[in-house]
Amino acid sequence: MTDAVANAKRALRAELRERRRTMTEPEREAASSRLTQHLVDLASDLGVRRIAAYLSRPDEPDVRPFVDWAWRQDIEVLLPVSRNDGLLDWAPYDAGAEEADHLGMPTPTSELLSPLAINEVDLIVVPAASVDRTGMRMGWGRGYFDKTLGSMEKCPPVYAVLFDSEVVDEVPRERHDRPVDGVVTPSGITHFSR
After folding, report:
1. What does the pLDDT look like over 11-53, one tens digit per residue?
2. CA-closest candidate to residue 161, choices 133, 128, 187, 191
3. Which GO terms fall under biological process for this protein (predicted)?
4. Which residues, in sequence order, are CB contacts of 178 under 8 Å at separation 6+?
């Protein structure tokens, strides 16, 4: 990565973190309700039976109500568990106990599955710092999802979950960065052509 790209990513991430920190609780609650409905619509339209998602942290767009909805609909939900080698294991969501992985990310305490478990899902819902109008995703800098998506032979639709202001004209990019098929924001679902 060139210094210019690294600096541009670092600056954009800092700006986005600050925006997220300054959101009010009523703004977050309203965004969560709309995000949940759009994610439900997306999953229903695609007729998914198995999805890969994640458990959001307090500063992220809240996908937990969607994960709970999917589980109640008997849709199998796989959640990532980060490993020291930069790969993701997966664990089925069971609405049970949670713990933090070695990066402090919330994960279920259910059975741990290998990185290959994601190959059987119908939809992948990923976190992001930002996505540009062409579908290029910028994550938070650890590369877990880029590695996962880049290693899949047959990748199902991938949608990033963001606040509206995090869809931008352009994000700094590197060769390993992976685009997404769409974004889900409080104002709706945007699909990108591939």
Report:
1. 888 899 999 999 999 999 999 999 999 999 999 999 999 999 9
2. 128
3. folic acid-containing compound biosynthetic process; tetrahydrofolate interconversion
4. 137, 145, 146, 149, 150, 158
Domain count, the chain: 1
User: What's the half-sphere exposure (Cβ side, CA atoms, 13 Å) at 141?
Assistant: 13
Separation between Cα atoms, residue 31 and residue 186, nearest integer Å: 5
CATH number of the domain to which 62 belongs: 3.40.50.10420
Q: Please tell me whether 11 is known to bind a ligand.
A: yes
9 labelled ligand-binding: yes
Entry pTM:
0.92
> Cβ–Cβ contacts within 10 Å for residue 137, how many?
24
113 is in an annotated binding site: no
Is the alpha carbon torsion for 157, 39, 44, 42 positive or negative? negative
Q: What is the rounded CA–CA span in Å between residue 80 and residue 115?
A: 9
What is the residue range of 46's domain? Answer: 3-191
